[in-house]
Amino acid sequence: FEFTPDLIEADFGDIIVLRIWSTLDRESGYGKHGFALIDWFIDEALPKDTWTTIIFVADKQGEFYFGCQHNCGTDHANMIGRIIIN
User: Fold this and answer.
1) CA angle 22, 24, 81 (to 5 degrees)
2) Of these four, 30, 41, 46, 52, which has the most CB atoms within 10 Å of its CB?
3) How many Cα neighbours within 13 Å face the side chain of 68?
């Protein structure tokens, strides 16, 4: 129930490519994970044991938060991270 890394830094104008591999605690009894980065209107399901690629341009500066938008289990609230665009 975490994103690794949970901090991503980039420069304004960079093309950001995230390759996310999703694992899911088989004992949790819940469905799937997701990746949501609201400031870029990104809302992707992350199928278990599959690579998902997300590409966007860092066209905003500041600190932004991403997280799992699916109630994936008991530690769902811990699935958050930050993107800092310099």
Assistant:
1) 55
2) 46
3) 25
Share of the chain above pLDDT 70, in %: 81
Return the closest-CA partner of residue 33 out of 22, 49, 42. 22
Distance of CA 22 to the CA centre of its chain: 10
Place of tokens 């992707």: 44
52 pLDDT band (50/70/90 cuts)?
Answer: very high
Please name every residue paired with 36 in a beta bridge, in sequence order, or none if there are none.
43, 67
DSSP symbols for 26-81: TTS----EEEEEGGGTEEEEE-TT-EEEEEEE--S-EEEEEE--S--STTGGG-EE
Q: What's phi and psi for 65, nearest 5 deg?
A: -115, 140
